[in-house]
Each structure stands twice: as C-alpha cells, then as structure tokens.
Amino acid sequence: MTRPDSLALNTLPKPQRQLYAHCACEGCNRTPRAFSRFCTKHARIFFRTRDPNGRAIRSSELTSQRLLAGVYLQRFADHPAVVAALGVIEGTLSDTLLPGAIRKQMQRLSIDGATPLGMLTEFLAVMGLQHSLPHSVNTDASWAFNVGNRVLRVCSPPSVTTANGKQIAGSIPARVSEAYGTHLRQTLGLFASQLWRHIQADIEAPQRAATDLSAALRAAPFGTR
Questions:
Q1: Per residue in 35-50, pLDDT tens?
Q2: pTM for the model
C-alpha cells in the first residue's frame, strides 16, 4: 500500500524557528540551546546564579565583612534596630506564609541549629561586599541570589548520594536563593545600608582627622601669627 503524501517525510511540518538567533547574553553570538534564550554556557550560569554572566560569591570573600558585621552587631546589641532585625530573621524561620520551597529551607536551618544572629551576620557580610565592591556581581538579580544563597548556607545543605554511591555536596535551587534574598533585601536593606555607612565612617575617621590636621598646618604653620 502506498503511503498518503501527507505522511511522506518530505511533507512533514518543519519545526518552529527559534525565537533567538543568537544567545540573549550581551556580546555572545553562540546559538541558543533548545527552549532557552541562552547558549549552553550562559544557560548553565543563569541556572546557577540567576544571571548569565553571574557568579556565586565564595564564603572566603566575605571574611572581613563578616568580622566587621559581628563586631558592630555586638557593639549595638541593644539598639532597637538590631533587635528588630534579629526579629525579622527569626520570623522567617517560622513564617508559614513563605513559599513552600523557602519554608523547606527554613525548616532545615532550624533543625541544623542556625541562629538569627548567624544568619543576620551572613546577610550583612554580603551587603557589606555590595557596599564596598558594588561591581563584584553584575545584576540586581544576582545580588539577590547571592544574599539568599549565603544566608541559606549558614548551615550547609545535606550531601546527596548518587546512583553509583558517590557523595556530592547538597545544592540549593537558585530560584529559591533569589526569592529569599529578595525578601531579606526588601525587609532589611535599609538597616544594612545605614549600618555599613556607619562602619565606613568609623573606619575612615582616623584618615579624615589626619587630613584635617595636615590642612590646618598648611593653612597656619606653627610660628606664624
């Protein structure tokens, strides 16, 4: 029996053309992967960091900011803003109105012994890096991801056993990190920015005093009347 022409291979409908001729990442001319705006490389980075040119900030990059945040949180432990900020963090650990994926991470942190102070310190450390080195990360979405990612990793996620028995580090979905980071920035962003401006002023105070002294001596050296 002869097959109808409508079923002949040369008459099958052609697949729909891709919307993007090139990767949507600026400056990249690679072909987008299927069902994505980005090429394989940038789609992988976007999946991990919410930015095709983004990156995940390493814990070691936050050492100095974490130390400073801890010192000033201790110094202002009784300040109403610090008490309120700790209350915000504590509230997220038990907030039943948060999306389910975030609540799951909050439950994990509660079980693993995460404290509001430790989580607030980590949040401030990332915000301190943004304050001092704003171009460390490219976009606002990637900053939100990094805030959430670092705070959710105050207690490392449990390792996962693969099918062949290999242990690999547990992961946190980037979308969950971004959503939680956005929530923290919206609720605690003003607190963080004011605290880091105060810290910067304290750090720069000795240099400003020395500069003022030098200017005063140049304007009126000793021995002049």
A1: 788 899 999 998 889 8
A2: 0.80
* 94 CB-near residues (< 8 Å, 6+ apart): 106, 110
Angle at 138 between CA 169 and CA 147, to 5 degrees: 45
CA distance 72 to 82: 10
CA distances from 76 to 84, 136, 150, 198, 199 (A): 12, 28, 23, 12, 12
Q: How far apart are CA 170 and CA 158, in angstroms?
A: 5
Check: CB of residue 132 under 8 Å from CB of residue 81.
Answer: no
Please determine, for residue 110, whether its predicted confidence score (pLDDT) is greater than 90: yes
List, in sequence order, the alpha helices (H) in 50-173. 63-75, 80-94, 100-112, 116-132, 140-152
Q: Which residues pair with 167 in a beta bridge?
A: 161
